[in-house]
Write a structure and sequence with these properties.
The chain is α+β, with helices and mostly antiparallel strands. It has helices spanning 2-21, 25-35, 38-60, 71-88, 105-108, 111-121, 150-162, 190-193, 195-205, 209-220, 245-260, 264-269, 288-306; strands at 93-94, 129-133, 136-142, 168-173, 176-182. A hairpin with a 2-residue loop joins strand 4 and strand 5. It is 54% helix and 9% strand.
Length: 310
């Protein structure tokens, strides 16, 4: 795109010079001499053809000029923010040797559940210390001479919450007790990884997370690089927001739409990716495509409810 702008800029300069020189007989004479040069005509033709080709590609494939978003790095960034947020809340401390550059989301998302089990089992819990967060979670619980049967209860409780894909191991050395959690399953797809951010955004805006997830699914199918027919991009094809920002912007928009609409159907219709912003929300019922889309969104809400998004 920058290359095309430079070419257009130089063409504009040449046109300006041509017009300026063409005002005088001497200038017109110079233009004739220049134009009769084969090299000048050749380069002018190449530049013109290049601009036309770039414009044609941009018109037919505008997304080619947008940098593709790496969704994995986005979720690693969200996982890092989640861990730092727990530290700010006083839920855990982070060891200075702990590397948080690329935390595995499948593990980082489980951190609150592990801490929850520890706080439930131990009557006077000390502040957990995060030692590792890469291909495993290692947390240290310090300050107890013996955990006795609490180690077994913590291990069983964590295993029950996380499931069989998360092997759990707990070790004690004097007053130092560590729990190690691995993940042995396949990497999660964008839909699974969007669950926690969607839940967080929905709690903030007091909207149903299952509805928001279903809307995202039927707009972009959780593709950060999705582009709608009106050239809006992202998970929710909004005019603003990059990456997971659109989830939080979308939750806010859903809250406002629910407050201003008569029904949930009307509020959902405002997210239709080809929605005409100048039309009234009620007009979506006159369009078979829009009404079918709204029905599909609402039909899948129960699916997400059944999968824990309530």
């Amino acid at each position: 795109m920058v290359f095309a702008i430079l070419i257009i800029l130089w063409l504009a300069i040449f046109l300006f010079l041509a017009c300026y020189l063409g005002r005088t007989p001497k200038g017109r004479g110079w233009l004739k001499i220049i134009w009769h040069s084969r090299k000048v005509r050749k380069y002018a033709a190449i530049a013109t053809a290049t601009v036309i080709a770039i414009a044609a590609v941009y018109i037919t494939h505008p997304s080619a000029y947008y940098a593709k978003i790496d969704s994995r790095s986005i979720f690693e960034g969200y996982a890092q923010a989640l861990i730092l947020g727990l530290q700010e809340q006083g839920a855990l401390s982070i060891d200075t040797a702990c590397d948080l550059q690329s935390p595995q989301p499948e593990l980082a998302y489980m951190l609150p559940a592990i801490l929850s089990v520890y706080n439930e089992v131990v009557e006077k819990p000390t502040l957990p210390r995060l030692l590792q967060m890469n291909n495993r979670i290692v947390i240290s619980f310090d300050g107890y001479k013996q955990f006795k049967n609490r180690s077994i209860r913590i291990t069983k409780g964590v295993q029950k919450k996380l499931g069989p894909r998360y092997p759990v191991k707990m070790e004690s050395f004097g007053s130092n007790h560590t729990i190690t959690v691995f993940y042995t399953g396949n990497l999660w797809d964008n839909e699974q990884l969007c669950g926690l951010p969607t839940m967080e955004a929905s709690i903030r805006e007091n909207v149903e997370p299952a509805l928001l997830m279903s809307i995202i699914r039927h707009i972009s199918d959780f593709d950060f690089n999705y582009q709608s027919g009106r050239n809006a991009r992202g998970l929710l094809a909004l005019d603003s927001g990059i990456g997971l920002e659109q989830v939080f912007i979308g939750a806010h928009k859903l809250r406002r739409s629910l407050d201003s609409s008569q029904t949930t159907e009307d509020a959902t219709a405002t997210f239709y990716p080809l929605h005409d912003l100048k039309s009234m929300n009620s007009e979506w019922r006159k369009s078979p495509l829009k009404s079918s889309w709204v029905k599909e969104v609402l039909a899948d809400v129960q699916f997400y409810r059944n999968n824990g998004l309530k």
